[in-house]
Design goal:
By secondary structure, the protein is mainly alpha-helical. It has 14 helices and no strands. It has helices spanning 2-6, 22-50, 75-89, 95-121, 129-148, 173-191, 199-217, 219-225, 234-254, 264-280, 284-290, 292-311, 321-327, 332-352. Helix 4 (95-121) runs antiparallel to helix 5, helix 7 packs parallel to helix 10 (264-280) and helix 10 (264-280) packs across helix 11. The longest helix is centred in the first third of the chain and has 29 residues, at 22-50. The radius of gyration is 20 Å and the shape is globular.
């Protein structure tokens, strides 16, 4: 919005010429989202507390009863700061930014309904898993179809660390995109179990995809790095920047001991957004590296369930795996910081793939 309002004034005021640079607008979007989160956060916490929108705590597992009643639905803070910032600083005539906004908002609504049911029922059970999965799949499929209808978009698959091999997967792009979006959304949701645990890797992933999106949207950089050029992908860097800013603002209130929990309204939406961006810039496989923490969290649940059903034994003391380390006696902050460190390492490995081919 600000781009369309201010850039035409560049002819009269030379300083406004800076608006045309994606790098400037990405930085501006990051700071704007951070500012909005800082301003709105205290009010939102008070309002949620007044409405008694508190987090129900499961009786099984590690003892987190001290967190009972902590305001949840904090993902609203991230989404509000993120979406307002993106609308202010993006070029709104591009399809890709609207596709990501739509998916993020749709998953946010789904997560909000899930959180609301948990709160009103005083239980950790919200929407049934089957219903939630059905709606996630439907929204992701619609987004995948919308992407493939762009005549300038090529449904190719990029293989990390492999040069000059990008097979055209044709119609298979739709089910693959659906799987990636739904899978990432649920993986972030599973990771959101300790103060600050999910938002750290989300921000690190968003920062990594900020760089990847900018590279994919610049024809000269894409050619130099031998990656798929995606017209308009630069606008996704602005989205990623706003996500980092909104995430930092949320972390201010979510750091242990948390004043605010993310809830499904945040985790489902942010995971879906990361998956969508990865598909748009043809880095869907690299997403598994960048979001390796999310992958491990999900695999720990799959392994635990499969092992118990097949053998009657559990591989981990508790799944997802961050609860396993809690059961081993690791302090919560140590688990969170170490998972952040692993995420940073994985982000650097992912970025190294741009040159190591």
């Amino acid at each position: 919005m600000l781009y369309h309002l201010l850039y035409p004034l560049a002819d009269q005021v030379g300083g406004f010429n800076v608006i045309r640079y994606i790098t400037f607008r990405t930085a501006a979007a990051t700071l704007t989202a951070l500012f909005i989160a800082f301003v709105v956060g205290p009010w939102l916490i008070r309002r949620l507390a007044e409405l008694r929108i508190g987090q129900p705590i499961r009786e099984i597992g590690p003892d987190h009863q001290a967190k009972q009643g902590t305001p949840t639905m904090g993902g609203l803070l991230i989404l509000a700061s993120l979406l307002v910032s993106v609308l202010l600083w993006s070029e709104l005539d591009g399809r890709f930014v609207w596709i990501v906004i739509t998916l993020t908002a749709g998953y946010g609504v789904l997560g909000f309904i899930d959180d609301y049911r948990k709160v009103t029922r005083g239980s950790s059970a919200g929407i049934s898993a089957r219903t939630k999965f059905l709606w996630q799949t439907l929204l992701a499929t619609l987004v995948a179809i919308a992407i493939t209808t762009d005549p300038d978009f090529h449904p190719v698959l990029t293989i990390p660390f492999v040069k000059d091999f990008r097979p055209d997967i044709g119609w298979l792009y739709i089910p693959i995109a659906t799987f990636v979006i739904v899978g990432t959304s649920n993986a972030v949701n599973l990771t959101d179990g300790l103060d600050g645990l999910a938002i750290g890797p989300v921000m690190i992933s968003a920062g990594t995809f900020l760089i990847l999106s900018y590279a994919a949207g610049n024809v000269m950089i894409a050619d130099y790095l031998n990656i798929e050029y995606v017209a308009g992908a630069g606008q996704l860097a602005i989205f990623c920047g706003a996500l980092v800013g909104g995430g930092l603002g949320f972390l201010w209130f979510n750091a242990s001991p948390a004043q605010l929990f993310m809830g499904d309204v945040g985790s489902l939406a942010l995971g879906g957004a990361l998956g969508t961006i990865a598909m748009l810039i043809h880095q869907e496989i690299l997403l598994a590296v960048v979001g390796g923490v999310f992958v491990v969290e999900t695999l720990s649940v799959v392994i635990q369930v499969a092992s118990f059903k097949l053998t009657g034994r559990r591989v981990f003391l508790m799944a997802p795996i961050h609860h396993h380390y809690e059961k081993l006696g690791w302090p919560e902050q140590k688990i969170v910081v170490r998972f952040w460190i692993v995420s940073i390492i994985l982000g650097l490995v992912a970025l190294s793939s741009l040159k190591l081919r």
